[in-house]
Amino acid sequence: MMSRASNEDSGNSINMNLNTDDDKVNKEDLEVFFLKNYNEDQIEKRLLFLEQLQKKIEKETQELQRRSKLLQTNNNDTESVNSEQLEVLNPSEDNDNRPIEFSLVTSDSIAEPTNDNLLLSSEADYMDSKQEDITTTTKGRKTKTTKTKTSKKTTTKKKKSSIEDDMVDFADDNEKPRRSKKSSETTTTPTTTSTTSKEKEKEKGKEPSNRINNLFTPAEKFKRIKTSFDIPEICNLSGLYPDEYWKNNAENHEMINFINDDYPLEIVTEASIQDYSQIVGIVLSPDGEMLVTFSTIGTAKIWDVETFEEIQTLRDVDEEQIDEFFVGRFTPTMEHIVIAGKLKDRKRWSSEDDDNHILPCPLKVFDVVSGKVINRLEGHAEEILCIKSICFKGENYYVTTSQDGYIIKWKMKNGWTELDNYTKMFDGITCMAFTISFLPHTGNKYFIAATDGDVSIFDFETAQIIQRFVTPYSHYCDCVKVVDCLELPQPEFIWGQSDELPTKDSPMFCYFITRGVEVLDADDDTVPSKPNKCHLEKLIYPISEHDHFKIEDINSYQDENYHSNSWLIKVTSNGRYIVAPTYDGKLFIFNLKTGKLSGMLHYHDGVEVRDVIFHPHKPLLFSCSDDGNVKVYRTVSK
Question: Nearest CA to 424 among 468, 378, 383, 359?
Answer without folding.
Answer: 378
